[in-house]
Specification:
- The complex is a heterodimer.
- In chain A, 77% of the residues lie in helices and 0% in strands.
- Chain A has one domain: Four Helix Bundle (Hemerythrin (Met), subunit A) (Up-down Bundle), CATH 1.20.120.
- The mean pLDDT of chain A is 85.
- Chain A is mainly alpha-helical.
- By secondary structure, chain B is mostly helical.
- Helices cover 81% and strands 0% of the residues of chain B.
- Chain B contains 3 helices and no strands.
- Classes of the chains: A mainly alpha, B mainly alpha.
- The interface between A and B is medium-sized, with 31 and 30 residues.
């Protein structure tokens, strides 16, 4: 049962954030009203997405830096890199959906031409392009090499696009284009006590999700090899 | 009609920064796409999301140049940001290219 503690922690933190997020005290602000509770669900998605995609890039770098050998031939780091990218994509879609609902009730429309929304759309496009790139190369080793390069390149540009560019222009989001950040006036200490555990909980959940996918992939790779050997033995 | 551009130097700065950015991003993406079978299609798919925010920022800078708005140093900030982005792309391309060509 090694390594189970952080899974228990993830479940505990998520349940804590669900219960206190829906039942806890919130500041009553005009326009936002009860939708402010979405802060516990919408914002952690972006934190989790950035962490997942960051992990994807780290494994991309590890793959490139790795010396030739048995481990590299099995493409372990490359598999991790792709699966972290898929988890990141899941979180970005969830973040987009929760954000769209929130926007409908506070800004009046599901989609506005906000730089952050465009940034998100671009992030999703970048990672879809990453999967298209992977799909269009036959050779597995070449695929791993080239897609790792694109992954690193795209992640760093993405951070600039969603982290720095929206701050330069007008935006409806807090903390951009001269708007005060969430923390400065309406995130009181009661909300902080739920928000940070929610962020940590979702990040741990993302790692758990990816961990399960990695183990599944490993098993299926071993089974594939065994099947190949079996076919060779009967042919 | 005459020349519609209010501020020539600002416009020139935008063109220079924009061309460097396009050249650097597209060279890197072309290097990546050249490893695939349908590299013309893939080049578009890979480069559009990377170029889009760049184009939006450039459009803003061009707007300042066309109408001669200074906007309290907003233009210099944009050009500085785009220059920084260009330097970053070129440095990354320099570091990543060896891995792209190694067989």
């Amino acid at each position: 049962m090694k390594g189970i503690w952080w899974k228990i922690l993830a479940v505990a933190l998520l349940f804590y954030s669900f219960i206190f997020g829906l039942k806890g005290d919130i500041p009553h602000l005009p326009i936002l009203r009860e939708t402010i509770r979405n802060l516990y669900f919408h914002v952690p998605m972006w934190f989790a997405m950035i962490v997942m995609m960051g992990a994807s890039m780290v494994f991309g770098i590890k793959h490139l830096a790795e010396k030739e050998g048995k481990k590299k031939a099995f493409l372990e780091n490359d598999t991790k890199s792709v699966l972290f990218a898929t988890s990141g994509l899941v979180f970005s879609v969830l973040g987009l959906l929760t954000g769209m609902l929130w926007a409908k009730f506070t800004w009046g429309a599901f989609w506005t031409n906000d730089p952050k929304l465009n940034g998100t759309a671009i992030t999703i496009l970048i990672y879809l392009a990453y999967f298209v790139l992977r799909g269009s190369i036959e050779d597995n080793e070449k695929k791993a090499q080239v897609s790792a390069v694109y992954n690193i390149f795209a992640f760093i540009l993405m951070i600039v696009f969603i982290g720095i560019l929206p701050r330069m222009t007008d935006s409806l989001h807090p903390g951009n284009g001269g708007n005060p950040a969430f923390g400065s006036y309406d995130l009181d200490n009661g909300m902080r006590g739920v928000f940070y555990p929610a962020v940590l909980g979702w990040i741990l959940f993302g790692f758990w999700l990816t961990n399960v996918k990695i183990r599944l992939k490993r098993v299926s790779k071993v089974l594939d090899k065994k099947q190949d050997k079996f076919y060779e033995s009967i042919l | 009609m005459g020349n519609l551009i209010k501020d020539q130097m600002m416009f020139l700065a935008t063109i220079v920064v924009g061309s460097i950015g396009f050249a650097s991003i597209l060279t890197m993406v072309a290097g990546i796409a050249s490893h695939t079978d349908q590299n013309a299609t893939l080049m578009a798919i890979l480069s559009i999301p990377l170029l889009f925010p760049f184009i939006i920022t450039l459009m803003k800078a061009t707007e300042y140049a066309l109408f001669g708005l200074e906007n309290g140093g907003g233009f210099t900030d944009l050009i500085a940001l785009l220059m920084g982005l260009n330097v970053m792309v070129i440095v990354m391309a320099y570091l990543l290219f060896p891995y792209l060509w190694r067989e």
